[in-house]
What we know:
It is built from 15 helices and 2 strands. By secondary structure, it is an all-alpha fold. The chain has one domain (about 65-294): MetI-like fold (Orthogonal Bundle), CATH 1.10.3720. It has a two-stranded antiparallel sheet. α4 crosses α9 and α6 packs parallel to α13 (about 235-240). The longest helix is centred in the first third of the chain and has 34 residues, at about 65-95. The chain starts with a helix and ends with a helix. About 25% of the residues are buried.
Amino acid sequence: MLRAIRERPGLQGLLLISPTMFWLIVFLLIPLALIVVISFGARGTYGNVEYTFQLANYARLFDGQYAGILWDSIWIALLTTIVCLLAGYPLAYYVARARPYRRSLLVFLILVPFWTDYLSRSYALMIILRGEGVLSTAMSALGLLQGPGRWFFEQIQLYTPGAVLIAMVYEFIPFMILPLYASLEKVDPALLEAAADLGARSWRAFWRVTLPLSLSGIIAGSILVFIPALGMFIVQDLMGGAKTMLVGNLIRNQFLTARDWPFGAAMSIVLLMLTLTVTLVYTRIFGFGEELAI
């Protein structure tokens, strides 16, 4: 038998990938197929699933309330991506242009948040942003809790959409910085020197040279932030309280609280389709970005 395996390279490859394929089939494809089947069912009297083929669960998604929740989820995920890009690009640029020994230290500091559970970091933000928290106390001591300062704090304090946005950016900004740093590090400084020799100012050299060459990092970082931000629900529960309901919270509530598994499954499938659509668009743009980089 071993001799037959050695003589057939295709069989060797099949044996090598068989553990991975088994894992994907058992823990990904079969559960996903079950979710699809449940999404076409109906909720029983006692919360059980009645396996009947109907589209009522998907039709409910077009209801004004649920459609608004889905739109709010897309909007806050998009806003989180934009803020992470605007805040992460300058930092990634600085790290990419730093000296080698300092660059290693800065990359290490960017990776440090990955060593701490995001739930613990969310609790730390709750202490900072709550009504009598660290930020409120500091602003009050500096006399900033008056006029515009008071309005600004009310927009970002705990249990507001602003606090949810801050927590989302805080959680996902490393996922934006690292791809940006990887693309900016590959930019040859000689290209910028050549642009300067040809009379281009620094901002024009950045716009015509650095930005196009870092487009692949921008797209990769955006997709790494947008997709998990779209389905996040723990941050909204902690930072937004009952005032913020996003699609992740809705799915969790349908499965664990309302016991309406068919509707929760339908919402999960819609969220999955949105994710796949974004990924497809990303792959298309990513290829276009590579052509620009070349």
